[in-house]
Specification:
It is built from ten helices and no strands. By secondary structure, it is an all-alpha fold.
Length: 197
């Protein structure tokens, strides 16, 4: 009887909820194995569904990967939107201070969520696939546009901010234990205190 009850409750999970769970699991698994090295069965198993069910929601593994890419970028955009709202709520400040606050929020994420970091790098690595490349580029452009809108920064300032973010991502990926020091180096460059090269 408990087995029947368990099966019924499993059937009651809405497809949208299962889809979200599969995307979350995909981020975790693709972070480890990348697009080509991750079997869909492993993602399905993490969520507790059969592999054919995954393909009832995503036509191909590439479609699941793209959904994960879009979710990964959206997570960063949500973090930035929340930090900008908080910055305004506590009294705000200059554009540069807001940019610094967004950067600090990103560093916090790098330090506490390695799978999301590694998946981000896997997304760039998969850009040899033209379809994936188009989606990654579109999401990157959306992120850049959002940063510009939130901060009122110029395209050049946003580009510099994203360049620093990529540098920090690499530092986190290779295990630099002191991202805060890396952030101080960036602050120095932004303030003109550190001479280039």
């Amino acid at each position: 009887m408990s087995t029947t009850s368990s099966r019924q409750s499993r059937r009651r999970v809405p497809a949208a909820q299962r889809r979200d769970a599969l995307i979350a699991a995909a981020i975790e698994e693709f972070a480890l194995g990348g697009l080509h090295g991750t079997p869909v069965e492993r993602i399905a198993s993490r969520v507790g569904v059969a592999q054919p069910y995954v393909f009832s929601l995503f036509s191909t593994k590439r479609d699941l990967f793209i959904a994960a890419v879009e979710q990964g970028f959206q997570l960063v955009m949500d973090l930035f939107a929340e930090r900008a709202a908080e910055f305004t709520r506590i009294g705000g400040g200059s554009r540069e201070e807001l940019m610094r606050s967004l950067g600090e929020r990103y560093i916090e994420t790098l330090a506490t969520s390695r799978p999301k970091l590694m998946f981000q790098l896997q997304a760039y690595a998969a850009c040899d696939d033209e379809t994936i490349r188009a989606h990654v580029r579109a999401m990157y452009e959306r992120l850049a546009a959002q940063i510009g809108e939130l901060t009122g920064s110029s395209a050049d300032e946003v580009s510099e901010f994203l360049s620093h973010g990529m540098w920090l991502s690499v530092q986190a990926a290779i295990g630099n234990p002191d991202l805060e020091a890396a952030c101080q180096w960036i602050r120095g460059r932004q303030a003109g205190d550190v001479q280039a090269g």
